[in-house]
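User: Can you predict the 3D structure for this chain?
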Amino acid sequence: MSDLDTAAPAIEDRGELALTLDGTRMVLRPTFEAVSEIEETLDRGLVDLARAAVAGKLKMSETAQIVGACVRAWGRETDNKGVAGANDKRIARLIMDSDDGVHEAMRTIGGMLSMAVTGGYTTAGELKPSMITKTTEKALVDG
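Assistant: Here is the predicted structure, written as structure tokens:
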């Protein structure tokens, strides 16, 4: 098990998305703070990033930074210091070493960012009740 071990799993009934890295499910929580950090660090807007993720056109560093910011946000909310202090370079290595690889990471964050773009999350990163029955397949950003 990794030093990023989490205390609570993603809640699938709420539509929370997660990646399995080093055998541990890492929940992605797109809080306002996480999204702001992502946009500032990558100097790209949320819609642009969602489109790039859905199209599979993110760089590895961008993928890791998006995952890192959202995992850290979840770690802060759950008081998990190991996750709250997650390092983007370590996350990049874990993504590359994972059984599902970079493609699955991009697919997952593409769905998460698409839902964020279409108003599916609150500023606290919680899925809005109206989005719980929808799938990431329906939350498109192209158009």
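The longest helix spans residues 60-77. The CA atoms of residues 36 and 124 lie 12 Å apart.
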